[in-house]
Amino acid sequence: MSESFSTKYIEIHGVEQTFKTKKGPFRALQNINLTVTKGEFVALIGHSGCGKSTLLNLIAGLTTPTQGSLLCANREIAGPGPERAVVFQNHSLLPWLTCFENVYLAVERVFSANENKAQLKARTDAALAMVGLSPAAQKRPGEISGGMKQRVGIARALSMEPKVLLLDEPFGALDALTRAKLQDELLQIVANTQSTVVMVTHDVDEAVLLSDKIVMMTNGPSATIGEVLRVDLPRPRDRVALAESAPYQQYRKAVIDFLYTRQAHVEKLTA
Ligand SMILES: Nc1ncnc2c1ncn2[C@@H]1O[C@H](COP(=O)(O)OP(=O)(O)OP(=O)(O)O)[C@@H](O)[C@H]1O
């Protein structure tokens, strides 16, 4: 197997997604072609309603395309799988379980066939430690902040050791300071775990700060990929130093130009 072949983690070929609606078929996406390589951080950005979540759901295997194909690690994506963990904006934790139990549930599902309880517990502890949540392990979601809940969601996803981490606006509901802190933590975690990440965002700065590649989508209906911007900023990235740098500003401007000049449609974007 050649190196370039084996490092393609996600391949999307000619994908179209049409929904059945009361008013007839609605084509949300058309002709989507994209490759995400191992260890790459990809941001999906575009105006509200263009189809970012639809595309992420297809990669997650929560839906199937009406045309085209999606592969993960050279295998057709035919449904959800532990190699593709999803973190949603609303953290979707089970409120009656502690943070530890929420993560343990996922660990158990993926590893219980081959590992004993002590090993599963160690994995859970390690995932919570990775997001700095060991002290809150025995608390329930109702007893912790929104940012902490989101960290539990990320810990739960990471605990499954997924090949790909799929993030659907994971920080969208958080205040600016918490959001910045979690972005920095995510950068650190991704550097440590070498994870492959696809993240939906509305935030231009978030996309430039985190990504290796920004996939800019045209407006729907029948949205497609308008442009892919490669972000060649060195890592580790420091938000304060970067904000002043000329290359950062150029990447930022390229995304803003695409969104506001070429796909003008003002809604919900943070620039
Ligand atoms: N199950 C569905 N049935 C019918 N239409 C749908 C369905 N899911 C999504 N759509 C439509 O497909 C389009 C894309 O939706 P999607 O949620 O993927 O956009 P988005 O870019 O993620 O939006 P936002 O940024 O606001 O979250 C929208 O017009 C939406 O109304």
TrEMBL record:
CDD domains: ABC_NrtD_SsuB_transporters. SMART domains: AAA. Residues 10-244 form the ABC transporter domain. The keyword Ribonucleoprotein does not apply. One of its GO terms (molecular function) is ATP binding. It is found in: Cell membrane. Keywords: ATP-binding, Cell membrane, Membrane, Nucleotide-binding, Transport. It is a peripheral membrane protein. NCBIfam families: ntrCD (TIGR01184). Belongs to the ABC transporter superfamily. This is ABC transporter ATP-binding protein. It comes from Polaromonas jejuensis.
